[in-house]
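Why do we care about 3D structure at all? Because function follows from shape, and shape follows, mostly, from sequence. That is the central idea of this module. The next example makes it concrete: a single protein chain, its amino acid sequence, and then its structure expressed as tokens.
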Amino acid sequence: FEIHLLELIQKRRARVGYTFKKDEIEDPMIRRIQSVFQRASIKWKDDVKLWLSFVAFCRKWAANVQLSKLFSSLLAFHSNKPGLWILAAKWEMEDCFSSESARQLFLRALRFHPRYPKLYEEYFRMELMHAEKLRKEKQEFEKADMDVGNLEHAEEVLTGELARIVYKNSISVIKSAKFHVSLLSIAQLFDFAKDLQREIYNDLKALHTDDPLTWDYVARQELVIKAQPGEELPTTKQAKAKEVGRREEKCCAVYEEAVKTLPTEAMWKCYMNFCMERFTKKTSSRLLRKKRLERTMATFWKAHVLKLLPEHQYRQLSKLLLYRELLKESLEVADAGVKLFRNSEEMWQVKLEAMISLKSEEITKVFNQAFEYLKPQICLPLWFTWAQWSEEAGTQEEAEMIYKRAVFRLRGDDSATMKEMYLAWAYRSGGYKKARDVFKSLQENRPFSVGFFRKMIEFEKEQESCKMENLREYYERALREFGTVDSDLWMDYIKEELNHPLGRPSNCGQLYWRAMKMLQGESVERFMSKHALHQAGRL
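And the structure:
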């Protein structure tokens, strides 16, 4: 309440342009809010969200003295949370411009969490920011031709030697290629740290040759290597495409060496990801597009022969080729994936989508093969695809046969979902009479969904001569299945009796008492509330 009131006062001041008496109005309010936060944080010390709300308030209202004390208390209670140490150090560095205080906080944090990578990353970044700030200060002083006297800093500090010490200490504790790459990415943000960047890059290649991430990073660097001094940059589109192709070849040469040195699934996955990323890049060069496709397919078949690709990459590549309208290649990839992952419904789905796009004559045969290998409980998407395809490409008799097979082969909720789809198809293809025949044929074939009955009610209402006795039949059958849990069904039934030209409002009282007897738990209260609102004309 106090915070909202404070914000309202601030808005009114901005609107009327009144800037006086802030020390009499806002300052006491800020102190009161801080007092409430202090009492709350003492009572609920474990509530980190409360502490962070307090921090956010103090930062917004520039209460730096209070915030310094607050961070001390917060870290005393929650020293086991590295993120809070980082938050406090960043505040010292970015808001208070105190590199020394930030450094002390990071050093204290590392005593509590000596193996937490994020702490080292942020400490490393802070030291580089500190060095950059000092370099800028020195440049400004030199421009102004001022005597800096004792403000002169050692050359090692200006070149980022402190960051280098942090780097060396961190890699002796955390031996991970991912961590190494994250430090290198931070160092690359600072132009003055070229020597440090080279050192980290060389250490990465020397210390983590058995990690796919290292090879992946080294290979991708070939794409971003800048032109050497005196080397002319390509200007025409053709020359640029040729240069991009040359760099991609260099990347692939590194990947080829990598998969020979480290022939693992993870390494081939990195190689395939690179090929697919380049294949998806837009280019106006037909030759470059062709090269990328050939490279991607060649890499895929090499990995496939070695059986060193995960299932999702087969699906990913097949869909990508399908999107690019390379139907034959898409089917080849999907077929290769199905042979390795016969129990994967998603893999069969991808293959069938490719076959449908190719208008293959063996689609029905492949659907039947899929159902032989797959468990019934995971087949719903395939049945849906088959039914949809038969609607578009086959006859009504074929489509109905597929829907009937699906309804009787599937179990539980999947069967109920298929019944809804079957009923909707019947109405689309044969109108109300066909839908009613399907409804009657399935009305004793449990399980059902509420949507199955609601669809039939909706179809009845769309008819010119909407019969009330048919609506009653559908509602009664729905209530037989869901009358104990679905309060909306009862309310809709009551409204139908009230609003339909042939309805009987006198039945509403009886329906109300039936609902009260059948509904269970919270459904009773929901029904009573809706019924009361409806009677009052508010629903």
